[in-house]
Structure formats: C-alpha cells, structure tokens
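Q: Hi! First time doing this. I have a protein sequence and I read that you can turn it into a structure. Is that right? Here it is:
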Amino acid sequence: MTDNQKNSIVKKYGQPQEIRAFIDYSKKGLEAYEKTVFARMIKDDDVVLDLGCGAGREAHAVAALCSKVYALDLVHGMLRSAKGFVTENNVYFIRADATYLPVRDNSVDVVLMAKQFMNHITVSQRRMITMNEVYRVLKPGGRVYLTVHNDLFNIGTAHLLNGVYKIMHANPDPRKLTRPHGSGDRGADLGSLLVGFFLLRPKSIIVNAYRRIASKVIKEYTGKEAGDWEISRVSDAFSPFKSPYHNFTVKEISSLAFNAGFRIDEMRDIWELSGKRTLPEFLRKGAFTMALVLQKD
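A: Yes, that's right. Below is the predicted 3D structure, encoded as structure tokens:
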C-alpha cells in the first residue's frame, strides 16, 4: 500500500465518529451468512489471522471457535477500541500493513478478509502483493474467506440499496411514541438513502467505462484503474476525509486468487450464504457483494 493510501485510510478510519460506528457495529456480532461460513471453515485447533480487524467484531466472534486469533489493523484507534472490546485471552493484536505481514511462513490455518477488506487496496500490484502474503503465511490446506463489492455497482449504489433495505426492515421503536410510527428507526436510514442518491451519478459509470477502455487502448496509461473510487462514507458515521476504494469484477477477483496460487472453492452472493437459496450462475456474476472461499493446496 502506498504512503498516500495509508495516510488516507488512517485519517478516515481514525476519526472518532468512525471508531464509534465500528464499535457499535461490532456489538451487533456476525451476520447470519458469516456465522454459517465461519462455523464450517474454522476448527478448534486453528490459528486465525483477521485482516482489517477494525473494532474487533470478527476477532471477538471467532475466538471461541479456534485456538488463537491474530487481529491485524493499520489504524491505532481501531486497535485500541478492539482491545477494549475483545476480552478473550487467545486474541493478539498487531498493527501492520497487509502488504507486509509480520507472520511466519506456513503458520496460519485461516485468513479472514471480511467486510470488503480487499476493496480498500486500490493499486493492482498492491493487491497482488497482499494475496501473495496471505498465501505465504497460510499452511498447506489453509483457507481464506473474503468478500468484495462487484464493479457492476458503484459506491452510490451501495448506500442506495442499503438505505432501501434498512427502511423496509426497520422495526418501530416503542420508546419514541411521540414520533410517527417507526420513525425512530428510519431517520438515520433515510440519511443513508439520501447519500446513495447523491453519490449515484451517471458520471461515475462513464468515468469507470473510460478507465477500463483507456487501460486497454492507451499505451502508457497511468490514470486510476477501472473500479477505483474515493468514498466519503464507509460506515453509518458522517466524518471528514475520503477513503480509497476499489470494486472488483468477477474475472478480476478470480484472477487475483488464481495468480496467487489459490483454488477457489466457493464464489457466491452473500445472500446465498444466508441459506436463502442458490442463485443461477448468471445472477451470481451480478452479485452486489461476492463472497469467496479459497484454499491453498
């Protein structure tokens, strides 16, 4: 990761608003699909490496499933919060960059790259270095879980769909009887919806198409890669600064895994992992959030 990328991520995720939002999210625990996958992937005697641990959500949840967890993050504030949230004594915290993991070769059974960790690495060479590092530290037969956002959707779409989903599934808050029915839950979610409308611009689609074409037809093209963005909203918090972000195509994330030496055991929409139903292949390629399970042979 470049110095500019590091600085941008540290500034953004080091904001008090972001840290509080991540703490609140960590208290909610794992998503249903994560519980399903982690229970299947992680064994009692496994050593787990949690990349981009944030406020400790995944580390806290999987500590009971394995023998040891190394929780790694780049942001001091997030690690401090994680140390306060995670009380299990088999979790060890590391501040490091994922492109240079301070972990021995062949020493880890499972690597977690949850909640779109890879989307925050916006240089293709750096993404390849990161995947090579993950391959290096894994034992033969080791597994990787990662999720990435699909390049068919820009970040504005993310907030738009998230806002719609939350509003549709909001529950009335009986403690706020002086307000219209359910408004106590829907207020913040309406903000997410409005952010989605603001960010969902036709311009972003045109820019992405130009970057994709330019990288193929312009010799010495040095602009941003297709799928690269800078986003102002990374959680439920409104905070200053922007974070680098990269959305993946199915081909791109598959090639990244293959080139690092991994076998892809699963590539599915997270909706499928929740036990809803199996999607046809053509719909899976249009998944908003793709979940992959990789293995080192």
